[in-house]
Design brief:
It is built from 4 helices and no strands. It is mainly α. The chain has one domain. Helix 1 runs antiparallel to helix 2, helix 1 runs antiparallel to helix 4 and helix 3 packs antiparallel against helix 4. The longest helix has 30 residues. The chain is elongated and about 50 Å long. The structure holds protoporphyrin IX containing FE (HEM) (2 copies). One protoporphyrin IX containing FE binds next to helix 1, helix 2, helix 3 and helix 4.
């Protein structure tokens, strides 16, 4: 039971890294003038899945901690970074969704969205490190 959250979120991090890789192709086309194909639909679908799974990770982590240890918000940096991720996950989703629903040539919003995505992935890496320390 206590392994569901770590396993699901570790896989989610791999998924998010792949989504970031797809996004970086778009970045080099948008800002560096390189030609490259962008798997738009795949980026949007897998991106939504990754962000939703990370958001759900906040709930599943707290539930799991409550069941295992009879209380939650007890893991120090892990819960603090976990909760701090929420606004970044939501904004990353909303900016992506806006650009998906209303397609047009843009430079500013993709940059903001890309930066938010990088922040989410970086925070998820921190979660993997602090999370692993709790498991070993
Ligand atoms: C782990 C989650 C995500 C990461 C790391 C991520 C990262 C990125 C990056 C780096 C770019 C390129 C930005 C640029 O060219 O300046 C991008 C573009 C884009 N992303 Fe995401 N993204 C994520 C999730 C999503 C989601 C959930 C959606 C939609 C609901 C989405 C929709 C888009 C769209 C439509 C573009 C192209 C925008 C344009 O060039 O006009 N992304 N993303
Ligand atoms: C985006 C990713 C993640 C988020 C948002 C997240 C969030 C959380 C939160 C909020 C808690 C509750 C802590 C508390 O109440 O004190 C928790 C518990 C926990 N997390 Fe994470 N976490 C993530 C990824 C990971 C990863 C990748 C691992 C391990 C590799 C991990 C391992 C754990 C462990 C071991 C617990 C204690 C409960 C249990 O054993 O299931 N987490 N997490």
């Amino acid at each position: 039971m206590g392994y569901i959250h770590p396993v699901v979120e570790a896989l989610t991090l791999l998924l998010a890294l792949y989504v970031l890789l797809l996004g970086l192709n778009r970045f080099s086309a948008n800002h560096l003038g390189r030609k490259g194909s962008f798997a738009w639909k795949r980026h949007v679908n897998l991106g939504m899945l990754a962000l939703l799974l990370m958001l759900a990770g906040v709930g599943s982590g707290m539930l799991s901690t409550a069941l295992l240890w009879g209380g939650f918000l007890v893991t120090g940096l892990h819960w603090q970074v976990g909760l701090a991720m929420v606004p970044f996950l939501v904004l990353s989703f909303l900016t992506g969704w806006t650009m998906h629903r209303n397609k047009k040539k843009r430079t500013g919003l993709p940059l903001v969205h890309g930066l938010l995505g990088v922040i989410c992935v970086a925070m998820a890496v921190v979660q993997a490190i602090t999370g692993m320390k709790m498991l070993v």
